[in-house]
Amino acid sequence: MVIELMKSHASVRDYKDKQLSREELSELIEAAQHAATSHFVQAYSIVWVTDRNKRKKLGELSKNAKQMEGAGAVLLMCADYNRLKHAAELQGGSIVFDQAENLIVAVTDVGLLAQNLALAAESKGYGICYIGGVRNNMQAISDLVGLPEGVFPVYGLTIGVPNEANEVKPRLPVEAILHENDYDEEKYSSLLPAYDATVQNYYEARSTNQKQATWTQQMAQFLSTPKRPDIKEVLAKKGYHFK
């Protein structure tokens, strides 16, 4: 059942030595393309990195060497207005894509495509993991795979036959994210401590990498300092000026 498959997701970071074929990957991508897309722009592209040297370098730049070198398929999920520029030129026109709205559209399109792709892969028994680390060196990775103006990597996605079975992390309760008619922040004072206890129990009981940590502790630490401050500059070089 689809809902049970969705609820069973856990990131996979250790894969068996089996590479996906073009046919296998194309089947997953074709299914993923049926995700919703704003105004039918389909503002995304995928770079499938098969070259071993490039995968090694990608692992170094993203600080995810084990996954980039060991996965069955390594994908860069990219926002893409370059293809739309070519579409407009075929009609004798040009496009404007440097507004904040267009950036939101492209990133949303990539997210919907990627999650559809992840679900398709998991339905076939593969494991997946998103690699936000590609934003650690967005410009260098863009140069590595020749991304032109209007195209930038949002995250990586690795796919492969799992060599491990991780437990599913408990998510926030529905009550914490669902607000009816008006946003209710008062409920967090009771819901978040209860969720902290759930997360702590999960970390203590899981089969590997046990630790003492709560969700609020992790979030307070993670969001206490700016992350990847160069991204705005890199996006400007790609033509996104947030007008």
UniProtKB/TrEMBL annotation:
It comes from Planococcus koreensis. Belongs to the flavin oxidoreductase frp family. PANTHER family: NADPH-DEPENDENT OXIDOREDUCTASE, OXYGEN-INSENSITIVE NADPH NITROREDUCTASE. Pfam families: Nitroreductase. NCBIfam families: PRK10765.1. Residues 7-160 form the Nitroreductase domain. It comes from the Bacteria. This is Nitroreductase domain-containing protein.
